[in-house]
């Protein structure tokens, strides 16, 4: 384990001296990222020091570039002395609070450096509340809301570090004011856009099952099978890519005698290892998907096993085994060994490796180059679980998933998230074919289908939210440690999702685990609401209000029964009880209003009309509730009332003086009521 030295500032030293001491100690004394870390270089290769899933064989590098040029091919470095501080801080914090996702921490450093440089001096000791606020503003301007929130959290940590270690002249206690993006919006353009961005399109969901059945080429088999697995449980793609070969788990349900099917998972963000049960309706699909992946990747595991047992010898296909030990290879023989398209490709490979003379190449040189191409850390693919390449589900021969390069018969690689997302349409605009374009599927408007693996996670979480699965169960099902994160994945619209979740679940009698209760927990059949074609609905004491508050506020506050936008559902016992209670109260009030009208109380005729209308509507509504021909779950919406509180006639002319509130209280028995002051 890398050695960690806690930096202790000396009180008698000023901020500048403390800064120099901190940088020097991190440069010379720490071993985080390795003892041979090239501290003074502006690009660090930290692939072997962190465990990033889903990156395949791609190297992970820290680039200490400034904020303005971060996305350029030749980015400019941060300015000194902030550059040296940034390197020291990153190395120190990786030992103190290690992270795998380095982006937000590096982004916070870039923003603070940019704010300091804008003020004229890129020295971290000059940081003050105004500089940090300016850095936060730059973060908000550059990143999406969710990314800005995460970077803002790192900026808060950075400012706290500067203050606690006396690395700034004026102490700064800055708190992240960048709010986490809200997820409660359910109506309007904002919700529609957010939901469309987070969810897979219907065209994609319709096309993928057909591609899954028709796929033959390795790239199509792998991608469609991964999509099938992601449709079965809300998994992160990095978790899928890390599955071992023996990931399947079966257990007999002793109560039903039915065999439950699940997968062994190692969640990506710190949750405990677990078995995720697959709903019965999807179990056969997932089994078929894993079988297809196994068949496609079997050769790759054989290659990996060869190198485990023969670390210094090149793997050769059966047809080329007779070439082993041969001193020289011609271009045709090299073509056969590597699996290249033709001898021209073999010559190009030799030229790239600086090998070969007169179309001949030494076997030993080829062997040396091939062995050097094995993945970093081989034979271990996953440092956390210890899973080897020979035991991994998602391992392929190099370039096997590419469409423009020949498959290398001698070298293996793990599949990266980018490869899957590219095949799902992520780089179509750059000329890369997706599985959808290869099979001729497009969106209804003719545009290319483009989805990401993470959209499936949002999709299934939304289905679970719509079906009423508890927040704890959703978090467990999704492999989260914090249930608060559920909200970011909830994109439910009334009626639309409930039908899909029920179809996905299948026979509820065959359920296992938390999903078994999904269908039972939906008290109100919300799919009925979909038929109303209303943009929104919220719960009231008596049922549901479908008023669109984005257009106007409520005009008859708390008088729901006299509103045509009240929706009631037969079979909701609690709300039906409240309706009957309100009916009884309305009858009493109507009788009192009738008596008051006879005695010519001021305004009593208006209240009599109102209470009569209320009693009539409640009576009409309850008669439908009591009608045995109306099934439970039926949606009841009364026609607009003939009269309402807004259209009551003016009071009649009085024949005697109006009575006071005190008189009214005494006569209707409300003298001591808390409702009057």
Number of discrete helical segments: 22
Strand percent estimate: 5-15%
Proportion of helical residues: 40-55%
The largest sheet is: 4 strands, antiparallel
Number of strands: 13
User: Rg, please?
Assistant: 34 Å
How are the secondary structure elements laid out?
Blueprint: H1 15-28, E1 43-45, E2 61-63, H2 82-96, H3 103-119, H4 129-142, H5 145-164, H6 188-198, H7 202-214, H8 218-230, H9 237-241, E3 248-252, E4 259-265, E5 274-277, H10 280-309, E6 328-330, H11 331-338, H12 343-353, E7 360-362, H13 363-372, E8 395-397, E9 412-414, H14 417-426, H15 435-438, H16 453-467, H17 471-478, H18 496-505, H19 527-532, E10 538-539, E11 544-545, E12 566-569, H20 573-598, H21 604-626, E13 635-636, H22 661-667
Antiparallel strand pairs: 1-2, 3-4, 4-5, 6-7, 8-9, 10-11, 11-12, 12-13
Give an account of the 3D structure.
By secondary structure, the protein is of the alpha+beta class. Among the domains are: 15-164, no CATH class; 297-415, no CATH class; 453-522, no CATH class; 538-667, no CATH class. It contains 22 helices and 13 strands. The chain has a 4-stranded antiparallel β-sheet, with no helix packed on it. A 3-stranded antiparallel β-sheet has the order 3-4-5, with helices on one face. It has a two-stranded antiparallel ribbon with strand order 1-2. Strand 10 and strand 11 form a beta hairpin. Helix 3 (103-119) packs across helix 4 (129-142). The protein is extended and about 120 Å long. Mean pLDDT is 77; it is low at 183-189, 467-502, 510-533 and 643-677.
């Amino acid at each position: 384990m890398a050695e960690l030295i806690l930096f202790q500032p000396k009180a008698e030293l000023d901020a500048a001296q403390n800064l120099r001491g901190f940088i020097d100690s991190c440069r010379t004394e720490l071993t985080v990222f390795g003892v041979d870390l090239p501290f003074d270089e502006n690009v660090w290769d930290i692939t072997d020091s962190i465990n990033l899933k889903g990156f395949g064989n791609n190297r992970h590098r820290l680039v200490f570039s400034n904020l303005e040029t971060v996305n350029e091919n030749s980015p400019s470095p941060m300015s000194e002395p902030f550059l040296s501080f940034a390197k020291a801080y990153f190395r120190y914090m990786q030992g103190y609070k290690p992270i795998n996702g380095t982006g937000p921490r590096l982004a916070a450093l870039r923003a603070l450096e940019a704010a300091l440089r804008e003020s004229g001096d890129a020295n971290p000791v000059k940081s003050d509340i105004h500089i940090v606020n300016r850095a936060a503003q730059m973060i908000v301007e550059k990143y999406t809301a969710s990314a800005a929130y995460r970077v803002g959290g790192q900026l808060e940590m950075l400012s706290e570090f500067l203050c606690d270690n006396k690395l700034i002249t004026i102490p700064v206690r800055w708190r992240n004011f960048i709010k986490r993006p809200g997820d409660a919006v359910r109506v309007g353009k904002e919700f529609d856009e957010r939901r469309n961005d987070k969810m897979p399109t219907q065209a994609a969901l319709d096309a993928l099952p057909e591609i899954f059945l028709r796929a033959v080429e390795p790239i199509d088999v792998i991608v469609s099978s991964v999509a099938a697995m992601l449709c079965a449980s809300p998994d992160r793609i990095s978790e899928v890519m890390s599955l071992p070969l023996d990931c399947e788990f079966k257990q007999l349900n002793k109560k039903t005698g039915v065999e439950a099917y699940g997968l062994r998972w190692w969640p990506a963000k710190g949750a405990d290892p677990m078995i995720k049960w697959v709903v019965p309706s999807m179990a056969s699909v997932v089994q078929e998907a894993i079988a297809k992946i196994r068949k496609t990747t079997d050769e790759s595991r054989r290659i990996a096993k060869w190198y485990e047992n023969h670390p210094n010898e090149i793997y050769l296909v059966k047809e080329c085994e007779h070439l082993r030990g041969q001193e020289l290879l011609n271009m045709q023989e090299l073509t056969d060994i590597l699996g290249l398209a033709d001898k021209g490709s073999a010559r190009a490979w030799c030229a790239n490796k600086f090998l070969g003379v007169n179309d001949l190449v030494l076997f030993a040189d080829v062997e040396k180059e091939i062995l050097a191409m094995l993945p970093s850390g081989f034979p271990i693919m996953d440092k956390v679980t210890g899973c080897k390449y020979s035991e991994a589900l998602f391992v392929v021969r190099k370039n096997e998933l590419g469409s423009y390069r020949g498959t290398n018969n001698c070298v293996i690689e793990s599949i990266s998230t980018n490869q899957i997302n590219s095949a799902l349409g992520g780089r179509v605009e750059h000329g890369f074919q997706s599985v959808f374009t290869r099979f001729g599927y497009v969106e209804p408007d003719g545009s290319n289908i483009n989805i990401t693996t993470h959209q499936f996670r949002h999709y299934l979480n939304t289905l679970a939210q719509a079906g009423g699965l508890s927040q704890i169960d959703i978090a467990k099902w999704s492999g989260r440690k914090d249930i608060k994160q559920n909200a970011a994945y909830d994109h439910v619209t009334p009626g639309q999702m409930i039908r899909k979740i029920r179809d996905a679940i299948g026979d509820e009698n065959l359920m296992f685990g938390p999903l078994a209760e999904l269908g039972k927990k939906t008290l109100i059949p919300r799919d009925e609401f979909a038929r109303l074609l209303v943009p929104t609905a919220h719960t009231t004491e008596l049922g549901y209000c479908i008023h669109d508050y984005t257009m106007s506020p409520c005009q008859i506050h708390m008088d729901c029964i006299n509103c045509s936008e009240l929706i009631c559902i037969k079979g909701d016992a609690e709300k039906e009880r409240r309706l009957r209670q309100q009916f009884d109260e309305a009858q009493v009030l109507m009788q009192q209003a009738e008596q008051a009208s006879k005695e010519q109380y001021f305004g009593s005729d208006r209240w009599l009309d109102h209470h009569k209308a209320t009693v009539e509507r409640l009576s009409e509504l309850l008669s439908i509730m009591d009608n045995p021909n109306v099934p439970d779950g039926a949606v009841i919406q009364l026609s607009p009332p003939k009269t309402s509180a807004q259209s009551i006639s003016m009071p009649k002319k009085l024949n005697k003086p109006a009575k006071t509130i005190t008189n009214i209280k005494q006569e209707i028995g409300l003298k001591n009521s808390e409702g009057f002051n």
